[in-house]
From TrEMBL:
<feature type="domain" description="Thioredoxin">
    <location>
        <begin position="17"/>
        <end position="144"/>
    </location>
</feature>
<dbReference type="InterPro" id="IPR013766">
    <property type="entry name" value="Thioredoxin_domain"/>
</dbReference>
<dbReference type="Pfam" id="PF13098">
    <property type="entry name" value="Thioredoxin_2"/>
</dbReference>
<protein>
    <submittedName>
        <fullName>Thioredoxin-like</fullName>
    </submittedName>
</protein>
<dbReference type="InterPro" id="IPR036249">
    <property type="entry name" value="Thioredoxin-like_sf"/>
</dbReference>
<dbReference type="InterPro" id="IPR012336">
    <property type="entry name" value="Thioredoxin-like_fold"/>
</dbReference>
<dbReference type="InterPro" id="IPR051099">
    <property type="entry name" value="AGR/TXD"/>
</dbReference>
<keyword id="KW-0732">Signal</keyword>
Amino acid sequence: MKTLFSAIVMVVFAVGIHAQSRLENAKKQASQNKELILLNFSGSDWCIPCIKLHKNIIETDEFKKLETENVVVYINADFPRNKKNQLSPELKKENATLADQYNQKGLFPYTLLLNAEGKVLKSWEGLPSEDALAFSKEIKSIKENQK
């Protein structure tokens, strides 16, 4: 009986640790490093504006500097449709939870700039009209105004 109880406790503990989401980790990192959180909802294999956003902004050196210079912590909540691109069940569940909290309308792409507590500072519905440089400058400006 002790073995069964121990096994159950270990499983519950393991699930509890895993349930700590990327957002919770991002909040901790953002708080420690005085960063913002950029949360992007995308359909990486079906949403053309999402694909353009990633190619023209997220994957650029200009945007990557925001991460390396401790300006933002980036989270991509992806909702692929193709079978070959499916996410793990845990990641699907986590993305669904993020969508329930921050993207109830189901917009794609939908990008949010959050503070370390998870409060929305700015949102972009659809593909941002800015290029990577202007997008990055806007985020830096918002961060500077948070001080």
